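It is worth pausing here to work through a concrete case rather than discussing structure prediction in the abstract. The textbook approach is simple: state the sequence, then state the predicted structure, then interpret. We follow exactly that order.
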Amino acid sequence: MTLTPGEEKALERLEEYPRTVRKGQIIQREKDLATELFVVSSGRMMSYVILPDGQRQILRIYFPGDFIGSASTAYSKAPESLAALTDGVICPFDKHALRRLIEEHPRVACLMFVLSQTERVALTDRLTSLGRASAKSRVAAFFLDIADRLRIADDSIRNSFELRLTQEEIGDAVGLTSVHVNRMVRQLEQEGLIARQNGHITLLDEARLQEIGHYTNRYDDLDTDWLPTAG
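Step two, the predicted structure:
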């Protein structure tokens, strides 16, 4: 959807107060009073929960341009924690700013609803994967998902991207130990499906990875025809 100048300015206002964060910094804790939402300006962030046994489950990894903390729009207390995976910049804004955006620019509100549904469906895919798929399938799908999401904001990304995640973090996202992640990554590499170099992952055979990972690109072919036309 092509935004009008007014819609672009309204979105830019959400990024008026950038805040630098450091790797490992907690942005928001689960059950804290949730008054702010965030846009990622640079770096990578994550949402997660801590399970009763102390293990961490990473729910979502966020990239520049992503809107984070949206789950808190439905609750007065945060249902998840947010933290920085790398050094970066986030732009906090009050929930009331989101209300004004929705009131003044309903097309943007509709688009945000569409994007929230892509996130929900992608999370459903991963939930299915965690419950039913093999370790190899989970890792393959995880790499494909990162590549597709990075391509949305950066047309220069083809089949190679900087991973910037530890094996422990990957494991916490796909429900595996770091040792198991290491084993699966090496297996994908040995089979000629991916290559690793200087922290980068190159997808050598995306068709085969999609087959192994039972993966569908949920960020492609979105239906926005029903959205209101520009006023």
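Step three, interpretation. The chain has seven helices and eleven strands. The mean pLDDT is 93.
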